[in-house]
Amino acid sequence: MPVSEPDDAGLPAALAEVGVDAAFAPWDDEDAGFAEADLVVIRATWDYTLRRKEFLAWCDSVPRLANRADVVRWNTDKSYLVDLAADGVAVVPTELVPPGAVPDWPDVEVVVKPAVGAGSRGTRRFAPDQRALAESHLAELHTDRGLALVQPYQPAVAAEGETSLVYLGGVYSHSFHKGPMLGDATSGPYLAERLTATTPTAEQRELAENTLDAVAARFGLRRGDLVSARVDVLRGADGRQLLLELELIEPSLGFGQTGPEAPARYASAVRLALSAL
């Protein structure tokens, strides 16, 4: 988005207050001068899911990118959930299903989604007696997008939604609640987010902290190297908090659901990244 999303409108002014000259530019603008910038920070590159190969090539071409290009490459594919589960993070159970493979369908409602996607596009929910529809959707994803994910549906998402915890420079900043966006087998997904400010529980905070610690260990970086991160969690069927999604690329950060101190914290996170160069 040429000037990012509306929530980000105050970021250039917040950065200017701490001596950082910043401006928005589309990632595919060849005249933007990304190579000459002291730091390039990704914000609303929401077309990357349809242009992933091109986008990742651009990331590799930027000398000083936040978050790092290797982190971005990993986070653009939801296979990262399996990696984090192997690292000991409590994630929504996830099975990776490559083209031609048959998943181990659980005998419960399931969610079938593309490994590369955003905004619930391509994500569908199926009851146990809708196996044929689920298999058809899986085949469509394999044809259009390749690798897909099958997950047991978490009932709390419809009743409670999910909680997003925002970290800036590796430090907790604020949280907001997102209402359900998921469609069923016949309807499309509800793509409009309903956001409200919230206070996370201690269990949600611990899960989010564990998630960022696992990322830092996996990539050999400090949490402060992550200019922004959003950790989306929900209550699983067994009552535990589970990681639904980790956004290290272009997350909405919910500045509209918090006060002016959050953009100021974002500016400090950018200053921290600059000082590390």
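^ that was protein a. below is b, sequence first then the tokens
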Amino acid sequence: MNNKKRKNSKRRPCMFCLDKMEYIDYKNVEVISKFINIHGKILSSRVTGTCARHQRGLSTAIKRARIMALIPFISERIRR
């Protein structure tokens, strides 16, 4: 058995639940860009603290914004 104690840390609250957002709009690039890392990947809910429901909506919104060319698929730095 592993005798190491786990750190008692609370999960970060979901930003969208706190703001009572039902729908994550793909046109709101300022909000969506907070959930993408520098390489253009979608951050996990474990890192961002979003609940499962809003993580699914967030990933859909990010993918729609990529298709509409509001945000890039990959960063400029990697393209070169």
